[in-house]
Design goal:
In chain A, about 30% of the residues lie in helices and about 30% in strands. By secondary structure, the first copy, chain A, is an alpha+beta fold. In chain A, strand 12 and strand 13 form a beta hairpin. In chain A, helix 1 packs parallel to helix 5 and helix 4 crosses helix 7. The N and C termini of chain A lie far apart (about 40 Å).
Chain lengths: ~325, ~325
């Protein structure tokens, strides 16, 4: 199941793996996903493995780091059978392979609910992208179409009647939730070319994560609601619920888009895009003197720094 | 809570940590511990954090690697309160600090049961100790006193009446289970001095783990039951249950002693010990041509390769 990797001196199966590393900076992240909190009970194990990897790949993307190695630990009810963790691993491998990341170890345990824990290492392609580098006057940018994952989550939860959405819209939104695309190529370009001053991935909502970037950077995030890119699929889904799709982007979470700051001089380069980014970048606001995160819309300015999910799977 | 570490360019709090590494080999391990499977419900959070680290430190010890960095992820029922994961982390830090290992990141999630997942990496002090290096004719050695953790587990489960054991024995056995001492200094010496041909840590019972080392080495493990070192505390506990303490060592698990093979020429050096090992080493058998693991005792030879626990917390 594991491809050859000359950087791996000892692979899975011993007390530890042994890697051959060159010196330099190494970015390291980890995420734990729990059934009933971070994903729905009954989730397909391959899709679960793909998503667990994607969430970690997104963290490295937000640092501008190229993924290299990962560990995968799985807790599961033994009655799921011995093939269950293999399927999770297969899914994880399909997500990791296009980025050249190798599985080097892991652990299995019985558990009352499914738990998937990933640790992922990689190499910054330039100066690492921190949350703290933003400066007053910088513009704020977001990749892709935040809010789609919230729509997909509601679809997966069964809160739309069958046929409520155009089939291609439904597919787009479910994929955004179940199988998010980590913005690795974009993050690498931001770090390599020194384009962004600060970056974070949108795991908990544009509002909450903009607030985190602003706090780390010692500035105030101002989001212009009219600038947030809304995919037609998300617009249809929110309209069907009588809700504003922009609110889903602000507080939905699970998007794994990149939110980053850059000086105004980078605007043309960023909106022109890169040959391998495979995602558009949109200016949605700016950093100003002050603290917190606010949204500006037709009805004025309001606080959005608490719009999103906290780490326990509850509304912040 | 986190001490300064000049090897850490970016610590916890960003999307990923960034480490400054020199080139060379890196040993990497991970273990996931689940409430009700790997530890008793209601376990003290600091002790849980210490044990989670110890289990991973033991894996690096079995590779002959010096621990450097770790990640700590904790799933827990939110009603445990925000201080619960902090207490787990504090316990982990007290275990890691004497070895110079730094906490560089982690994740928190709500969960229906407590889950602690650690990823730990470090530097081999010489050629890494693999399970596969054993040769026919090598002796088999074990550190310390296997079986004590099984006695401690039974004590913690309440299967002994109060006062059944001498108080200092009870304390020794409970500590062996709740707070095992990873044999890091011994493992480092084995790798640095090239003393051992193969090594594994005893997590699942001397029988099962001897079988694993033998299989990886393409040999047969022969354990002499009369040579297994039995602590007086274990002897008292097993006697109280009318059982043979040697059986607890063979199949008890959770000891985190090192089991390793070495050529007969290393016998004197190994039993003389090292200034910082803080644990005796005992010859308990040998590797022979063949496959599997057997025990030789007064009643002859029997298969022990399946004596112990499997990864789902069930008897193998």
């Amino acid at each position: 199941m594991l491809p050859e990797d000359e950087r791996v001196a000892v692979g899975p199966g011993d007390d530890a793996a042994v890697l051959r590393l060159t010196g330099g900076e190494l970015a390291v992240t980890t995420d734990m996903m729990v059934e009933g909190v971070d994903f729905f009970p009954g989730e397909d194990p391959r899709r679960l493995g793909r998503r667990a990897l994607a969430v970690n790949l997104s963290d490295l993307a937000a640092m501008g780091a190229h993924p290299e190695f990962f560990l995968l630990s799985i807790g599961f009810p033994p009655e799921k059978g011995d093939d269950f963790p293999l399927e999770v691993a297969r899914g994880a491998l399909t997500r990791a392979r296009p980025f050249g990341a190798s599985l080097v170890g892991g652990d299995l345990s019985g558990a009352p609910a499914i738990v998937v824990s990933v640790a992922l290492w990689g190499r910054p392609s330039g100066r690492p992208l921190l949350r703290s580098g933003g400066r007053e006057g910088d513009f704020l940018f977001v990749s892709g179409w935040p809010g789609r994952a919230e729509a997909g989550r509601r679809l997966a939860a069964g809160s739309f009647p069958a046929g409520a959405l155009a089939i291609e819209h439904e597919r787009e939104l479910l994929a955004a939730y179940h199988d998010p695309e980590p913005r690795v190529a974009l993050g690498l370009a931001l770090a390599r070319e020194g384009l962004a001053s600060a970056a974070i991935d949108v795991s908990d909502g544009v509002g909450l994560d903009a607030g985190r970037l602003a706090r780390a950077s010692g500035a105030k995030a101002v989001i212009e609601l009219g600038e947030i890119p809304i995919s037609p699929a998300l617009a249809e889904a929110a309209r069907g619920k009588g809700e504003d799709p922009v609110e889903w982007a602000l507080s939905g979470g699970d998007d794994y888009e990149l939110l980053f700051s850059a000086p105004p001089s980078a605007l043309a380069r960023l909106t022109a895009g890169g040959p391998d980014w495979n995602v558009p970048v949109t200016r949605i606001g700016r950093l100003e003197p002050g603290a917190g995160a606010v949204a500006i819309g037709p009805s004025g300015e309001r606080d959005i720094a608490a719009s999103g999910w906290n780490h326990l799977g509850r509304r912040a």
